[in-house]
């Protein structure tokens, strides 16, 4: 058995099924699409709500076996959820806000992205700056939370804009990423379901 190549996929959490998108990527490698979908759904449904778009890095081998890593949702998806938007503007303008997210939401998104294998070694601050840059390119601005009268409130752990953040926190919680806003750190589990020691401890 030898390594053939990596394949990058975008698959909805818990609802993957054999189809043209997956078939075009895995078919030429002789990988069983149904088996991949089964394994992916079993793994991702414990990490995210169904339907959340996830990145997948699949390693294919010469004997048609495979292994894969599930990555976090796209930054743009998380930003839209935090801003309470269904979709971004067709022609985003960084100078004209189409939505807002708080610094706390930026921090939460950064922690979700930081948990990915390719980013764990990067400074969290750098990841957060990247999130801010992505938000601006989408026309989403970062500002402090506002009260019902439109006045800016002080940013703290209990006082922040709640639009769309329930879903953001749910994603962080399922991801096992700790939060300064009440998201619990879930210990990793081995294949038998036993808790393993957390790296953070």
Please tell me about this protein's structure:
The protein is α+β, with helices and mostly antiparallel strands. Helix content is 32%, strand content 15%. It is built from six helices and five strands; from the N terminus they run E-H-H-E-E-H-E-H-H-E-H. The strands form two sheets. Strands 1-2-3 form a three-stranded antiparallel sheet, covered by helices on one side. Helix 4 packs parallel to helix 6. It is elongated and about 55 Å long. The relative contact order is 0.13.
Please tell me what the overall shape is. Answer: elongated
Distance between the termini: 37 Å
Count every helix, treating DSSP H or I runs of 4 or more residues as helices.
Answer: 6
Tell me what portion of residues adopts beta-strand conformation: 5-15%
Determine the fraction of residues in helical runs and give it as a percent range.
25-40%
Class based on secondary structure composition and strand pairing: alpha+beta
Task: Name a few traits of the molecule.
201 residues, two-stranded parallel ribbon, 6 helices, 15% strand, disordered C terminus
Summarize this entry quickly.
With 201 residues, the chain is an alpha+beta fold.
Helix/strand layout:
Elements: E1 3-12, H1 20-26, H2 33-44, E2 53-61, E3 66-70, H3 75-83, E4 99-101, H4 103-114, H5 124-137, E5 140-142, H6 165-175
Parallel strand pairs: 4-5
Antiparallel strand pairs: 1-2, 2-3
Helix pairs in contact: 3-4, 3-6, 4-5, 4-6
């Amino acid at each position: 058995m030898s390594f053939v190549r990596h394949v990058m996929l975008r698959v909805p959490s818990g609802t993957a099924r054999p189809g043209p998108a997956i078939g075009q990527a895995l078919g030429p490698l002789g990988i069983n699409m149904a088996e991949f979908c089964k394994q992916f759904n079993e793994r991702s449904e414990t990490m995210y709500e169904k339907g959340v778009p996830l990145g997948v890095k699949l390693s294919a081998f010469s004997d048609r076996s495979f292994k894969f890593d599930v990555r976090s949702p796209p930054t743009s998806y998380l930003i839209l959820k935090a801003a309470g938007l269904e979709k971004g503007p067709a022609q985003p303008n960084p100078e004209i806000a189409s939505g807002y997210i708080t610094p706390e939401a930026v921090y939460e998104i950064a922690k979700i992205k930081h948990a990915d294998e390719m980013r764990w070694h990067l400074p969290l601050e750098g990841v957060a700056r990247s999130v801010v840059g992505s938000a601006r390119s989408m026309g989403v601005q970062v500002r402090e939370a506002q009260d019902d009268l439109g006045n800016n409130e002080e940013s703290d752990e209990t006082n922040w804009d709640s639009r769309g953040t329930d879903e953001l926190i749910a994603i962080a919680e399922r991801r096992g990423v700790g939060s300064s806003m009440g998201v619990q750190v879930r210990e990793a589990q081995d294949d038998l379901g036993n808790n393993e020691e957390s790296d953070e401890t």
